[in-house]
Design a protein that fits this description.
Elements: E1 10-13, H1 21-26, E2 32-36, H2 44-52, E3 58-61, H3 68-80, E4 85-90, H4 92-106, H5 111-114, E5 131-135, E6 147-152, E7 157-162, E8 170-173, H6 183-202, H7 208-230, H8 235-252, H9 259-268, H10 275-297, H11 302-315, H12 322-335, H13 351-360, H14 373-383
Parallel strand pairs: 1-8, 2-3, 2-4, 4-5, 5-8
Antiparallel strand pairs: 6-7
Helix pairs in contact: 3-4, 6-7, 6-8, 6-10, 7-8, 7-11, 9-10, 9-13, 10-12, 10-14, 11-12, 13-14
Bound molecules: nicotinamide-adenine-dinucleotide.
Nicotinamide-adenine-dinucleotide binds near residues 177 and 189.
Amino acid sequence: MRFQFSTANQIHFGPGSVNQIAPLAAKMGRRPMVLTGRSLERAGGLIEALAAEGMEVFRRPVTAEPTVDMALEAVHSARRAACDLVIGMGGGSVIDTGKVVAALITNSGRLVDYLEVIGKARPLVHPSAPYIAIPTTAGTGSEATRNAVLGSPQHRVKVSMRSPYMLPDLAVIDPDLTLSLPPAITAATGLDALTQLMEAFVSSQSNALTDGICREGLHRVAGSLQSAYENGSDPIARENMCLASLFSGMALANSKLGAVHGIAGPLGGMISGAHGAICAALLPHVMHTNVRALRRRDAHSAGLERYGELARILTRNANARAEDGIRWVKDLCQTLQVKSLASLGLNKADFASLVAKSQKASSMQGNPIRLTEAELMEILEMAG
Ligand code: NAD
């Protein structure tokens, strides 16, 4: 076995850990750009603490899943303000925007050239400016990944900018920050974490280290996602979901994903549904099609064995088979009121172009079996 493993340089986890950031940040720069969500509410304390350390803070809100243009505007304003440190405090949208800003403070050239699929996937030459990632959702694990996802409305696709330099220098995960997540966002983001853990676990490029991380994360989602959804103030459920999200990011950054993300990337550029909601709508149907394709074409594969183990972890039944895991995920999606792709805005007329785009997505390479065009169409029919 051969593998490499990289993650955020330092990870601080625990309730209240957000209060330890300011003195650490003061050692990393003097003029931070602090990217936040729409409201200042959650970041107000941090901004005051940074100012108390004598830092000149430039705040920038990120109000939606980022597009190339939104990220570029943030880059321009960070360059104009001569920022030397970036802090992203919010959901994956904020954290990803921060990664792009930190990368392009120190690297010149056009943002689009650094993008996969629609650009040249140009590698970064210089390390990014110091970056601190503070997630306030529990789902993307972006605090431990080396990519940022940007939408390109012009190409109707979402694509990644990726570099080892984009791994945050410091990831601070404070579960208390997620107590305010409403049930629908808890569900969508939590199912994103579940999807990432599952896809990394059955991925053709998993390794012994990502396997262990995935098993631990899957146990935590199985025991806590429904509780976090039904009782958002349950601190143990929130803590478990934050760990599961972190683990999902650590795993995906060091293995690959699969067909759910292979479809969700391009689809996110075609409809306005949130990333987590799109993944959730696809997940049970991709599991079904993958398991059937593995049984038909690769019955002795490690992938099929993995789906069995997944089922045993999720159902907590030592005799569970792959199909029981699919049923468990379907039931969870029903409890969490996951919507169909049609109700998120996907039209049948777009199925063919979506299948063509998803076959080119980098995540598709991690799927445990190569799916045919007909199988991808069938997934969309079932999820539609
Ligand atoms: P998000 O960042 O878009 O946030 C969703 C909503 O939750 C927003 O309205 C936000 O204001 C709100 N919110 C955030 N924290 C909150 C809190 N504590 N309380 C109440 N409301 C809160 O959603 P997300 O799912 O975290 O991120 C999605 C983005 O991340 C997508 O663009 C997706 O493609 C990307 N992503 C990136 C990676 C990666 O590795 N880079 C992995 C997965 C997803």
